[in-house]
Specification:
Blueprint: H1 11-40, H2 43-47, H3 55-74, H4 84-100, H5 102-116, E1 118-122, E2 137-141, E3 151-158, E4 161-171, E5 176-180, E6 183-188, E7 191-194, E8 221-224, E9 229-233, E10 251-252, E11 256-264
Helix pairs in contact: 1-4, 1-5
């Protein structure tokens, strides 16, 4: 809304009123900067950063920071607020800053969600076809418990870097998983049952003791899951690095990055 004023009024008084409004907006922005910085300190944020890896957002954030610093500096020159030109400067700054201040607010919300609640990620590889294809964007939740058949993102450290896997939970802590004749059996509390898996699998898919083609599906193997760990498989059972392979094995609680709660594919 355009600010109205009488040219006969004392410019210093009008400027101080205008600057007070600008100051309030600046303080709000500084609070959102603080939220952003604190949220970025948590490990989950940096894994799938969608803000500070974007040149577009970097430019917008830089503009907002420069204007915020300018607002702070402006407060040191209150003795010059009695000039017409200064009043007009503050008025233009306030009007423009009301628009620019939306940027740090938006960034703070995205960073906070990314660190504590929800994160976006892009699927790589064919291991979860036909439910998740390479290039699909998925949204990951960082809250809640993990259950059987949940699709999860796993973060595994290898040397000085991290690798990420998208898999499905099959076996829970303390259970025993047996693969035999293309079937999966779960043993829990001394009782064994055939896994009732309704997951969509590729046509002619088979579940063998190790991923790959040319294996005998009648081969039997057993995996004992320690407490606090999980047994995971890829939906594309023949092309998946998962708990059947020594390179990944069982997954500890701490290695779960989050649960995939929905998929975005605009080309479906």
């Amino acid at each position: 809304m355009e600010e109205n004023f009488n040219l006969d009024n004392d410019f210093k008084t009008e400027s101080l009123i205008m600057f007070k409004k600008l100051k309030k907006r600046t303080i709000i922005v500084l609070v959102f900067y603080f939220i952003t910085i604190v949220s970025m300190m948590f490990k989950k944020y940096s894994d799938f950063d969608v803000i500070f890896t974007s040149l577009f957002f970097k430019v917008l954030i830089t503009i907002s920071v420069i204007m915020t610093i300018g607002n702070i500096v402006l407060g040191f020159f209150k003795e010059h607020f009695n000039k017409d030109q200064v009043f007009k400067l503050i008025k233009r700054e306030k009007e423009l800053y009301e628009l620019v201040s939306i940027i740090p607010m938006f960034v703070a919300v995205i960073v906070f969600f990314n660190a504590f609640l929800l994160s976006p990620a892009v699927v790589e590889g064919p291991s979860m076809e036909p439910n998740y294809y390479e290039g699909d964007t998925v949204v990951i939740s960082h809250i809640g418990e993990y259950e059987r058949f949940d699709t999860v993102i796993i973060k595994v450290q290898s040397l000085d870097s991290y690798s990420y896997y998208i898999k499905r939970i099959i076996g829970l802590p303390g259970e025993t998983v047996t693969i035999e004749n293309n079937n999966i059996y779960i043993t829990r509390d001394g009782e064994t049952f055939l896994l009732d898996d309704t997951t969509d699998l590729p046509n002619n898919a088979v579940t063998t003791c190790l991923p790959g083609t040319g294996q005998d599906i009648t081969e039997s193997c057993t995996f004992v899951i320690p407490e606090g760990e999980y047994f995971v498989l890829g939906d594309n059972r023949q092309q998946s690095t998962d708990s059947r392979t020594p390179s990944l094995g069982m997954i500890e609680d701490k290695d779960f990055y989050g649960e995939v709660i929905f998929r975005l594919n605009f080309f479906d």
